[in-house]
Design goal:
alpha/beta, Rossmann fold, 5 helices, 19% strand
Amino acid sequence: MSESPVDANTVLVPVDGSDESVTAIEYGVAIADKYGADVHALYVLGEEVTRAIETGAVEEDDVVVDTESFIDTARGIAEDYDVALSNSIAYGFSTRRKTQHPGSAVLDSADELDADFIVIPREPLTGEPGEVLEKTAEYVLLYASQPVLSV
């Protein structure tokens, strides 16, 4: 039996709560299931939410509660395949760091997690405030050192 061309222990799936993010979770879980890997869902916060947290207009704990309903959906998908799912939250933007944007947040997290594969939603450009990842897929496809599936 020959070795698999893909050796994956951790599949990173950046999400923002959109329908496209659910699709990315489904693909990420399917890949993890095939290769015996775990999934890490990285919830990337948008500019408006990040600014609100940094200025104190919104409590960080409230944002965590809001993201948990999406993560619960992701957990349910992972449980259906008996795939372990962990999660974290990242600021997609910063008022203190010019070079921080959703793409850099995804790639920094991939390095920190030692992710072997990235599944990222490619969202339509609708301009909805919650859709943080709509322009990020292209950046990640260009600069990631891991294999990337854009869905």
